[in-house]
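Here is one chain, start to finish.
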Amino acid sequence: MLTSNSLFATLDPFQLCGIAGFILYIYAFSSVQFNWLSGNSATYSLINVLAASLVAISLIADFNLASALIQGSWILIGLSGLVLRLRRTPISEPLHFETTPYIGTKP
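Its structure:
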């Protein structure tokens, strides 16, 4: 019988990166769906860029062109959005990172 400990022991570092990316994607998406995080926040963009980067790293072991194109696009779009936020945010005003989830309407 395969236990969770033995399952994770059989995974290589690239597979672990892919799983971590998957977890971040699910966390970000569910956080927006349950209104814990704004889809327009820098935090959401950073989580998505990190998730896409981890999944892209996992493709080193088992390359898939379609997945590589999706992850590359996700990274470029996410980084572009972060750069645009930085350019639009005055230096005296901090970049909007959400540290605590909100429930219901935005504060």
